[in-house]
Design brief:
mainly alpha; about 0% strand; about 180 residues
């Protein structure tokens, strides 16, 4: 009887200690989840958002002084680098567009230059085919030198700019004014 009672008591103690150990393990797991898993998960979400282009996503946990904080600061540096790269790419695209415009347009009047006109003529001629009609008007400003001589090059430039703008106002969409 004494052995059976001791055995029952040991079994009860074992079950109680096992339950207590399981409770401690669950509590530790919850604490670990709050301390490690949730912050890491939120940082992973932030990284995904950044890589998908949402560069305004706030980076959490940067104030922490542990490994999570170090990772968060690294993610913040990644964010700064991505923002900087985006700005540089936009600036490069803008400069590229400006260079393409400059390469295809007259610097004084802003209308297409000869290179752009030749490309337009080739494209349009191919589009209409051998039986289509292509009409263009060539305007030659005779005796323009006396204007520059009498009134100066600024006045001559102004005349060219005004004429270019007037021609642009006259043409239909899809037509081209070139110098």
């Amino acid at each position: 009887e004494e052995a059976a009672a001791t055995s029952d008591r040991l079994i009860r103690n074992f079950v109680i200690l096992s339950l207590l150990g399981a409770f401690v393990a669950v509590a530790a797991s919850i604490a670990a989840s709050r301390a490690i898993i949730r912050p890491v998960t939120s940082l992973v979400r932030t990284i995904r958002a950044l890589l998908q282009g949402d560069l305004s996503t706030p980076v959490p946990h940067t104030a922490r002084r542990d490994e999570i904080g170090s990772i968060a600061v690294s993610v913040q540096e990644l964010q700064r680098a991505l923002v900087s790269n985006r700005e540089l790419a936009q600036e490069r695209e803008q400069k590229q567009a400006e260079l393409e415009f400059i390469a295809a347009h007259d610097g004084l009047t802003g209308v297409a230059n000869r290179k752009a006109f030749d490309a337009y003529l080739d494209t349009t001629a191919r589009a209409i085919g051998p039986d289509g009609e292509l009409i263009f008007l060539l305007v030659d400003l005779d005796s323009f030198k006396p204007i520059n001589d009498a009134y100066g090059h600024e006045a001559g430039d102004t005349v060219l700019k005004v004429l270019a703008q007037r021609y642009r106002n006259l043409v239909r969409p899809g037509d081209m004014v070139a110098r």
